[in-house]
Amino acid sequence: MTTDPLAPLLALADVADAVEQARTRFDQTLGHRALRRHGGQVAAEVSLRSAVASAALEGRAHDRETVRAGTVTEPVLQGALRVAGALPGLSDLWPKAPRQALAKLHVLAARELVTEAELGRPVDDPVVAARLDALAALVAGGTQVSPLVLAAVVHGELLNLRPFAGPSGVVARGAARLVLLSRGFDPRGLLAVDVGHREREPEYVGAAGAFATGTPDGLRSWLRHYMAAVEVGADQLTAIGDEVLAAA
């Protein structure tokens, strides 16, 4: 029997408990009354807020209401919006052809930011290529750990590798959300985990750096941050649901 390569992560101190707590918190929010009749509206708002947060984490912060009004043309923000909007349509492709899905995410994120020759093409580096192949194997069925753990690993690894020119962080955050969509944890795209990363940005940056060390403490730091961001995203869903009901 082959050992699951990500299973040891759950043995790190407090990680399994943090994963369970994050899963429970999100599950609790899925009973919100707004999702019964206004689920599409809620999902659209989650998508918008996720894109704004992702662009901000890439150094391009914009007022959410200005973005909603459609007056922000800044290319990183526009790329984040395109990525957020495309995720539901890529969820079937992701587990079958992860590298193809990543290329599509990069084309969406980096349009107008990198050369035509760079769009959708990873940097020419054999180490990056080998690690992308290993990551793709995990996504394509190489692990059975919680989708939350796989999403965290995909996110952290892509942040560390920066395999594409331009806004690689937007691609990494989109790919992590694709894990949650495609594995059935968040099939409706209701979890604004990127808002959690944005609200805890200093921790996000520090934990991502710790993940890059590959040490047990570094991996633990990133996983605990990721689960905390999921909880913030769950709280965000509740807040959005309340706002939608109040406006109905």
UniProtKB/TrEMBL annotation:
This is Oxidoreductase. Gene3D superfamilies: Fido-like domain.
